[in-house]
Amino acid sequence: MRVALGLLMSGTRHHFIPRFLQEGFASHYSGEKAFTWVHRKGVAPFNTNIINSGVEGHFYTTEGDTTADDLITSAEGALASLLDGVRSEDPEFLRDPQLPVLIAHLEVRTRHLRESFLKTGELLASRLIEFLADEDAFAGYMTRRLERDPTILRSSLAEEFVKRGIPMNHLDSVLHLATPLVPALIQAQRADFPRIAAQLRDALPTILKTAAKSGHIKALQSTVAPELRVQRYAELTFRIARVSNMPLILGDSAVLYAVVGPRRYRAFLDADTDLSAVFLPVDSQRVLIGSHEGTVTDVPPDLSNAIARCSLEYFISAENTDQHEALRDQIGADAHMLDQSEIEDIVNESLQ
To answer: Which InterPro entries match (predicted)?
Structure first.
């Protein structure tokens, strides 16, 4: 019955952390209703029905298109049954070929993923807008860019020819006449750069939010468990491990990845990142661990701390303890795909 409860996602309120996963972190039940503790940074923890946790209105729909929502709802039945079997610690379920599908699915469906793309895009775009607002720097950049790659001007002129119905056999002649004038035209437009930057800055939040949602939904409409990710997790051997030091929490990324590098834990796995282990808390006492064959990965003593740090907005727990209270301040510390220095490197490299 509790598996069935976790499948009620279709409609207007969509659970980006599936209820069948959240039920493992129930503090108590009232009839058929499961409750959990929600911990947000800077906010006192509160106990709520999981129907109100990890949920957002129309999260998987846009302009009445319910395709992504329908595909996720369809997939949840088998995944919920699989997770129920994993919690039973039946060895057969730990060898189930659908386990990599479960991991990949949980990774790509969350609000954490969408918001991380959005925040990364905002930081990148903000840096580029700052550059556009600098008249001297941007004018110099555009001049050098066109000198290094004249095909940019050719492509732009060709698009205008097509729009205006101008025969393409005139393109080379126009290009020959226009090229020497480009540096002067750029200099003449310098005063407009700050105004354009200001307009972009005002429009940026709406543009990026719309793009992040439509891009996420489009990806989910293609697949609710990307095959390349499934194949990568299929290389792992899975087992259930119990914890004893403190009740586990469930972060808003659901899955946690241990990787090789300065940031040991991540909420998402890049294609070129060296994976050490996958951790999926299934309830307050047990965690599903995936690691490469021949490698036995123990439960890290700092697992709950890492989960909190890689959570973007909140985590849930079956208990409200002093230890959980202390973890609230860690929320968001390691949540983003790229940190500020990585974004600066991308911007600087792009502008070279």
So the answer is: DUF4238
pLDDT in tens, 42-87: 999 999 999 999 999 999 999 889 999 999 999 999 999 999 999 9
Provide the residue range defining the domain that includes 137.
Answer: 118-218+343-351
Residue 143's nearest CA partner among 204, 193, 201 is 193
Q: Cα–Cα distances in Å, from 188 out to 68, 139, 183, 344? A: 48, 10, 9, 29
Domain count, the chain: 1
> Do the domain assignments include residue 232?
no
In a domain, 225, yes or no: no
pLDDT at residue 352 is higher than 70: no
Three-class secondary structure of residue 244 per DSSP: coil
The CA–CA distances, whole Å, from 153 to 149, 157, 178, 184 equal 8, 6, 9, 14
DSSP letters spanning 58-92: TTT-BTTB-HHHHHHHHHHHHHHHHHHHHHTT-HH
Question: What's the predicted TM-score (pTM) here?
Answer: 0.83
DSSP one-letter string for 155-173: HHHHHHHHHHT--GGGHHH
Long-range contacts of 298-306 (CB under 8 A, 24+ apart): 298/241, 299/241, 299/242, 299/243, 300/258, 301/245, 303/243, 303/248, 303/256, 303/279, 304/246, 304/248, 304/249, 305/330, 306/256, 306/264, 306/265, 306/334
Rounded Cα distance, 329 and 7, in Å = 32
The two three-digit tokens of residue 266, written as one number: 């991540």
Tell me the torsion sign for CA atoms 237, 96, 106, 306.
negative
d(CA 114, CA 110): 7
Domain-located, residue 138: yes
| CA 79/CA 74 separation, integer angstroms | 10
- Indicate whether 299 belongs to any domain: no
95 vs 6, residue with greater confidence: 95
